Structures are given as structure tokens and as C-alpha cells.
Amino acid sequence: MSNTEDLLLAADFPAATEPQWRSLVDQVLKGAPFERLISTTYDGLPIAPLAQRRADASPVAARTGGAAWQILARIDHPDPALANEIALRELNAGASGLSVVFAGAGSAYGFGLPVSEQAIARALEGFDFDAGAALELDVSLQAGAVLDAMLAKGFASSNRGAGIRIGHDPIGAIAIGGNAARPWTD
To answer: For the chain: N or C, fewer Cβ within 10 A?
Structure first.
């Protein structure tokens, strides 16, 4: 059913077959029809509960094979000093980076770091950009203001920008807010 070459723990077990799986599913269904597990898209396309991998499928490039996973700590406190305290505590406890959510971002849920040079500088005080830690910024419509503040404080200069990712969803933000902070052409 699946390729277990790269799964060392799975290699200790025999490969499962679809008939074995169906037998277990039938036990759980207790006489209910198997079709009950098949869902459909809005377009009416069936989605099986378990599907075989296509023979011509190729891997999807997501992250480099063998690259370490990153554990990012969400930092969304509106007080930059407390946000900094939380960020440094998380990094010292093993987080490999920060996911900083700014006020007004779609995922801020009423919180978020204020968008100002002072707030960003205070919240990221002590963050070592050169140590390889990742920095993810959820900025929504305020991407320009956040980036301007980052540049003004020198956070995105030289090689420091290599580990910075920016989450910018202008269409989602317009849908949530009803309008854009800047003209669409900007």
C-alpha cells in the first residue's frame, strides 16, 4: 500500500494489503456499507477513504529531503516587552524559530504585535539572526509597513534575510477587512 523504504520503524513490520485493511474496516463498520466512508467534493467527485498512490506520481517538493523540521513558537503578544520575554524563553527551551503574528493579520485573532519600528525592535531584541533560527512573519495587509520597519532596524540586511519568511495574504485580508490599506496596484 505504501513505500516504507524511508520509514525505518515501518520496515520492521510486513507490508499491509488492501484486503487486510478492508477486513479491519468492515469490523468497525459493523455491517454498515463501505460506501458510507466515501465522501464527495462540491463538484461530485468521489474521495475514497484510502487511495493507492498513482504509479506515475512524483514527489512534491516541500522541503529539502533530510532537512531538519523546524519548531516555531508563535509570538503574538501586543506588548513588545512581553513578546520578547516569551520569544527568548521559547528559543531557549528548544524552538528553532519564531512565528511573529502582527496586529491586523488574519490569524491574529484580536492579538498581535503592533506594527512599528519600536515594537519590532523590542520584540526581536536578542534574536540571533546569524544563528540559523527561522523567523516567520504573519503580516497580512501590513507587509509594507512591517518590512519598512524591519529594514529600518537592519533586521533584513546582508545575509540576515535568509531565514525570514513572510506570510502575506492580501486577498484573504481584504475579504476579512472589506477593503485594502493601499490601492490594489501597490
So the answer is: C
State pLDDT tens for residues 31-41.
999 999 999 99
pLDDT band at residue 142 under the 50/70/90 scheme: low
Q: Are residues 173 and 108 in the same domain?
A: yes
159 shares a domain with 80? yes
* Chain centroid, CA 135 distance in Å: 12
For 94-136, how does the pLDDT look when each residue is reduced to its tens digit (9 = 90+)?
998 999 998 888 788 889 999 888 888 899 888 877 777 888 8
Domain boundary (11, 36, 58) is at 58
Whether residue 83 is found in the same domain as residue 172: yes
- Among 23, 31, 27, 1, residue whose Cα is nearest residue 14: 1
**Dist. CA 130–CA 100, nearest whole Å:** 18
Which domain range does residue 15 map to? 1-58
Confidence at residue 58, expressed as pLDDT on a 0 to 100 scale: 81
Handedness of CA 179, 183, 185, 186 (dihedral sign): negative
The string of DSSP codes covering 52-64 is PPPTT-----SS-
66 domain residue, yes or no: no
